[in-house]
Amino acid sequence: MPDGSKHYRVAIVGAGGIAGHRHMPAIRAQGDRIDVVAAVDVDGDRAAAFAAEWGIPDSYTDLDTMLAAARPDLAIICTPPVAHHAGVKACLEAGAWVWCEKPPVLSLAEYDALSALEHEDGPYVGYVFQHRFGSAARTLRRQIADGTLGRPLVGVCHTLWYRDHAYFEVPWRGKWETEGGGPTMGHGIHQMDLMLSLLGDWREVRALMGTLDRRVETEDVSLAAVQFESGALVSVVNSVLSPREESYLRFDFSDATVEVSHLYGYGNSNWKWTPRKGVAGDVAAGWLPADDVSSSHTVQLTDYIGSMDRGERPAASGADGRRSMELISGLYQSAITGRPVLRSELEPGNPFYDHLDGGGQYHPMTTETAEVAR
């Protein structure tokens, strides 16, 4: 079949909120290109209820059984982070392409093990990083590649969100072994991926983090200074302690500043291009996006399906998808060890390559230890 006319059998793995609120609407937006043939969840009642709600013919409690019976072309992984590695592995080995929710996995070691299962012509595993796919981000990415705005010099990447104590009562949240990390891993990863998709590889990170108010094993806030291979310097903050929530990115180039302020998704109206003094107004007006496509699961899934049509690696996979895991690993290593970390250090033999907390090296300050310190 020519591109654009292929039909794909899709399975949903994990029937929780993200599957129904984000993935099923994104699938429906693809029209008759996708048939959802199965839903899987360890909770059989939840799997059956999800299948009934969305008109899916079969539900399962065992992933391997589903893969053998339904033989999907694409599996969408919506399970908690601790189950990502095993789920993606099973799907790749069964010959299915995979689109996996963030965070990709719990360590660089797990990420690389899954990459080793991919083949030159697929199947591939891609990850949900929808913010890089909106029209404003695509426009800015082209401008950076073309040098339209000059050199990138200074940046801000802040994810300032609020999650109360009750949010962390879900058993797998707030634990290194099941969530992989705190807001750096589970929340700020979206903005960091957008930043990395624009600015490319980083060179060095210097970071701090703390567990200041939430009853968790991980951090509830982190901040870092990041130097990129281009020389650009960026401030990165990730928080779940911020009552006025905002996702804010700013990039200062030699000829312009570009900003976006949003929360969980953006349209063109959330972005602003500000030329430096001396840049002609008609030139600056030509910088704005020609179309208005919001960031969403829908736009990324459309892009992913296009990659399947062409039999090529999707965006936000392989080395491209690894960047966010690299930065998070380096940030945690720097904050926990108290020293700068180079990207080149994140390789086998480094304890932070295998475990984001370096194998139990993070010891958050409690009320009792704070009193002792004072």
From TrEMBL:
<dbReference type="InterPro" id="IPR000683">
    <property type="entry name" value="Gfo/Idh/MocA-like_OxRdtase_N"/>
</dbReference>
<feature type="compositionally biased region" description="Polar residues">
    <location>
        <begin position="364"/>
        <end position="374"/>
    </location>
</feature>
<protein>
    <submittedName>
        <fullName>Gfo/Idh/MocA family protein</fullName>
    </submittedName>
</protein>
<dbReference type="InterPro" id="IPR055170">
    <property type="entry name" value="GFO_IDH_MocA-like_dom"/>
</dbReference>
<dbReference type="Pfam" id="PF01408">
    <property type="entry name" value="GFO_IDH_MocA"/>
</dbReference>
<dbReference type="Pfam" id="PF22725">
    <property type="entry name" value="GFO_IDH_MocA_C3"/>
</dbReference>
<dbReference type="InterPro" id="IPR036291">
    <property type="entry name" value="NAD(P)-bd_dom_sf"/>
</dbReference>
<feature type="region of interest" description="Disordered">
    <location>
        <begin position="353"/>
        <end position="374"/>
    </location>
</feature>
<feature type="domain" description="GFO/IDH/MocA-like oxidoreductase">
    <location>
        <begin position="138"/>
        <end position="251"/>
    </location>
</feature>
<feature type="domain" description="Gfo/Idh/MocA-like oxidoreductase N-terminal">
    <location>
        <begin position="9"/>
        <end position="123"/>
    </location>
</feature>
<dbReference type="InterPro" id="IPR052515">
    <property type="entry name" value="Gfo/Idh/MocA_Oxidoreductase"/>
</dbReference>
